[in-house]
Amino acid sequence: MNLIECQAKLYSYVLSLTGNKNDAHDILQETNKSILEKAADFTPGTSFPAWASKIAYYKVLAYHRDAQRETLLFNVEILQEISEKTLTKNGQYDRRLGSLFHCIQQLPDDHQQLLKQRYEEEKSLEEIANLWGRTYNGISSLLYRLRLALIDCVDKSLQLEEGT
Asked: Domain 107-164, what architecture?
């Protein structure tokens, strides 16, 4: 994963630590600048998102320190706790997303195509029904069953991964 690919994650991470969209945007820009300046310090083979998140964390700390507000929204301990929880949640999200892609690949080609038409191409159910020569309710029902099957597959995959 590179800097461009992790922008949304970095932004949501910074936003979770600041609680303000404008501040998060400004801090993200400072973070991006630092990441580019320190690119030579990154160790290949390690987690780029984790490295970038650590830089963002220090930028948030600097932001709170430099703001010199009468009362800080967060003290350092609370900020650290929020940071750790956010990074944990991001890791869980990545594992779920990876499992979802794996589960989708296990589906028959026509079901993969249906999901692609609906969620990537954003076609309406009416459009898909016309393309497939099926009724609106038939396509809606099939998508519902596919979503349930994917939820079940992802849950089982994560349980196997965790060894439970």
From this structure: Orthogonal Bundle (1.10)
pTM of this prediction exceeds 0.85: no
Range list for CATH 1.10.1740 in the chain: 1-84
CA pair distance 140, 19, nearest whole angstrom: 38
Reduced to 3 states, what is the DSSP secondary structure of residue 5? Answer: coil
Q: What is the largest CA-CA distance in the chain?
A: 65
CA–CA gap between residue 146 and residue 48 (Å, rounded): 34
Angle between helical axes of 136-162 and 76-106 (0-180°, round to 10): 120
Model confidence at 76, in pLDDT bands (50, 70, 90)? low
CA 66, 72, 75, 81 torsion-angle sign: negative
The C-alpha angle with vertex 72 and arms to 67 and 76, in degrees rounded to 5, equals 100
- 7-56 tens-digit pLDDT: 888 988 888 888 889 889 999 999 999 999 998 888 888 888 889 989 99
CA gap 160, 100 in Å, rounded: 14
What local confidence, expressed as pLDDT, does residue 164 receive? 58
Count of CA atoms in the C-beta half-sphere (13 A) of 2:
2
